[in-house]
Design a protein that fits this description.
The complex is a heterodimer of chains A (152) and B (307). Chain A is mainly alpha-helical. Chain A has eight helices and one strand, in the order αααβααααα. Chain A has a single domain, classed as Butyryl-CoA Dehydrogenase, subunit A, domain 3. Helices cover 45% and strands 15% of the residues of chain B. Classes of the chains: A mainly alpha (152), B alpha+beta (307). Chains A and B meet through helix 1, helix 2, strand 1, helix 4 and helix 5 of A and helix 1, helix 3, strand 3 and helix 4 of B.
């Protein structure tokens, strides 16, 4: 059964990775529709795992369409408690890293999915997920924002 | 640099597992001991911890309820289309323009498609009937009821105007200047026409030159009975019929085969093609008082030998 947390997760996933609110909404809509169908067909499977699989699948078709950094959108449907970190994240997504690292970071740290669900949803071993998380975190920690915080 | 039995490279590679708490206790302790003594690795761990904290703070980002509600609603393409471009979203100018266009299309369809002509004919027909009845009284034929079992469309139509005589219309007398195809009226065998008469008939000056005749000759090396018969057969095959009172291939006073016939105009080119294979043909169009049927040609041709 899909809950509101799943809808939020789908919206935030694309918001953090596509950096475009309109695209995020349309992509999340596609993901939730397909996830609904799959959950209804396979009630045994975990909705989290199905959602992760659909997020990764739809993201591949949307990633080329993502826009530039939106520093000050005229009307935003998203509210962040830490705008500086959000800006640093957007710069990180725009300039650095491989997409598989940022996808793993988003799913685990930003959306809170467990490493086991990530491994099952993405169809890779848990060690791979840990590797991607470590590399992603390493890359994000080298951004000026984090370096400044660390006093380096 | 190796301290406490582990290298910095190994520690750096093990940091994700260390942070996730997925190392064996012995390995965990050795890395922890290394981090206490190695500032570089400790700094690396601190940066990653800060990055992790920053990401966890970012996880509190929320989207608005409207977006969530939009996502939860079941929306189809047409539903979205109507909500975006529906009639309520149109400006007043666009609405006026659309209404005007609709009225214009309706008018155009009405003017072009509606059977105005049939309506006008019916109206005229009724008026004529009334006028006739006013002048001459009701026509009995017009009041004849249609039989019940008569098929639709074959009922007896009312007749207006003067009635025909019981025997039908008298047979019209043919106009002397008009001659239909010769086969319609066969030549009387008891009164054969000589060549002189035939020639005189053709050369009689007409008062009104309304018709045409193609007159000429076909010059061949030798006139043979086979050629005469062949041409006769070809003319008949092309739908030709004799027009005068003599048969095709009749020999005149100069012993020349004489052809006077009518053929369909559409076969004239074929006829020319045939006679041109036999010799040199020369036909000229001339005025003639006799008029023949539309689509037919009258030809007078003789066959003569080359000098």
């Amino acid at each position: 059964m899909l809950t509101e947390a799943h809808y939020r997760a789908a919206l935030n996933f694309f918001y953090f990775l596509l950096l475009d609110e309109g695209l995020a909404i349309s992509a999340a809509d596609r993901v939730m529709r397909s996830t609904h169908r799959l959950v209804a067909r396979t009630p045994v499977a975990k909705p989290d795992v199905i959602l992760i699989g659909q997020l990764a699948k739809i993201f591949d078709s949307y990633q080329r369409r993502r826009g530039k950094i939106q520093t000050s959108p005229p009307r935003s449907d998203w509210k962040s408690s830490d705008p500086e970190t959000l800006l640093a994240w957007k710069e990180f997504i725009q300039k650095r890293g491989r997409e598989e690292f940022s996808v793993a970071l988003t799913l685990h740290y930003l959306l809170g999915f467990s490493i086991e669900d990530l491994a099952e949803g993405l169809g890779v071993p848990e060690g791979t997920i840990l590797h991607r998380l470590g590399r992603g975190l390493e890359q994000f920690s080298t951004t000026p924002f984090i370096q400044k915080k660390a006093g380096l | 640099m190796t301290e406490n039995g582990v290298s910095c490279f190994f520690v750096k590679e093990s940091l994700p597992l260390y942070m996730a708490g997925r190392l064996k206790p012995s390995r965990f302790e050795s890395i922890q001991a290394h981090l206490k003594t190695c500032k570089t690795c400790a700094s690396e761990l601190r940066s990653r911890e800060l990055a992790k904290v920053a990401l966890e703070q970012l996880a509190h980002t929320t989207c608005s309820k409207e977006v969530l509600q939009f996502l939860k609603e079941e929306h189809t393409f047409w539903k979205d289309f109507r909500s975006k471009y529906g009639w309520a979203k149109w400006s007043s100018n666009a609405k006026w323009a659309a209404e005007l266009a609709l009225v214009g299309v309706a008018l155009a369809v009405t003017v072009n498609v509606f059977p105005w002509l049939n309506l006008a004919r019916t109206f005229k027909h009724v008026n004529l009937q009334r006028e006739w009845e006013n002048r001459f009284g009701k026509s009995e034929v017009g009041e004849k009821p249609v039989a019940e079992n008569q098929p639709l469309g074959q009922e007896t139509l009312p007749v207006y105007g003067p009635q025909l005589p019981p025997g039908g219309l008298p047979t019209p007398k043919p106009h002397p200047a008009v001659e239909l195809a010769a086969h319609d009226k066969p030549a009387p065998p008891t009164n054969p026409v000589t060549a002189e008469e035939e020639g005189q008939n053709d050369q009689t000056p007409a008062k009104a030159q309304k018709g045409f005749v193609w007159r000429g000759s076909l010059r061949v090396d030798t006139v043979t009975p086979e050629l005469i018969e062949k041409l006769k057969k070809q003319v008949v095959d092309l739908g030709g019929t004799k027009a005068g009172k003599v048969d095709l291939g009749w020999r005149n006073e100069k012993n020349q085969p004489y052809y006077h016939f009518i053929i369909p105009q559409s076969n004239y080119d074929k006829f020319l093609g045939i006679i041109n294979t036999e010799g040199y043909a020369e036909l000229k169009k001339e005025n003639h008082p006799r008029v023949i049927k539309q689509g037919y040609m009258r030809i007078i041709m003789i066959i003569e030998e080359e000098p």
